[in-house]
Specification:
CATH topology of the largest domain: Rna Polymerase Sigma Factor, Chain: A
Shape: globular
Number of strands: 0
Number of helices: 8
CATH class of the largest domain: Mainly Alpha
Radius of gyration: 20 Å
Strand content: under 5%
Length: 194
């Protein structure tokens, strides 16, 4: 069998068995999709390249640590990592305050801003944790489509190809996932407003 015909899983297994070229093949196979996703979020080529490199360094480290679940789809897993790395970038950027030498600097203004920001972060973090808990109650099919759509930023066409289902099935699963999340939210009396 030619290397081009190897599945992602076969390449992952080969990499874990010591074939370092396999990871290069995986990166080349998925670079356009991953880079395109990152670029669509950060809108800066140099920054997108930096995050792209960080993503695949993390992928390699996670593979070596045995953190990849073979049941999942490799590209979905990489897209989730990409999504998280983009979010991490924006969080870091939001924390960095630029102070110009000519501006008057008042430590009490900065402390007030940080307190509000910290409180907002805590609320947002709680909402995301609550949402994660609710998502666990969804069926595997609904959860997979929801995660691909919102966490990996995939289109319904990409989801249908990745899951080998029709676009209408992907749309239906998403619709039921959202309906079930609303029901679960009411049942557990959880407020998901940020």
């Amino acid at each position: 069998m030619r290397v081009q015909n190897f599945s992602d899983q076969q390449l992952v297994s080969a990499f874990l068995s010591g074939d370092s070229l396999s990871i290069e093949r995986l990166i080349i196979r998925h670079k356009d999709k991953v880079f395109g996703f990152i670029m669509s979020k950060v809108k800066d080529v140099d920054l997108a390249n930096d995050i792209f490199q960080e993503v695949f360094i993390k992928v390699i480290n996670k593979l070596r640590e045995g953190c990849y679940n073979e049941e999942g789809k490799f590209i979905s897993w990489v897209m989730r990592i990409s999504h998280n790395m983009v979010i991490d970038h924006f969080r870091r950027e939001a924390r960095v305050k630029m102070i110009r030498p000519n501006d008057e600097y008042d430590i009490f203004n900065t402390l007030g801003e940080e307190a509000e920001c910290t409180e907002d972060d805590m609320v947002r973090s709680q909402v995301f944790n609550d949402l994660k808990q609710l998502i666990r109650y969804l069926s595997d099919e609904q959860r997979e489509v929801l995660e691909m759509r919102y966490y990996a930023g995939m289109t319904f066409k990409e989801i249908s190809e990745e899951c080998d289902i029709s676009i209408n099935t992907a749309l239906g699963r998403m619709r039921y996932a959202l309906m079930n999340l609303r029901r679960l939210q009411e049942k557990h009396q959880i407020n998901l407003a940020i």
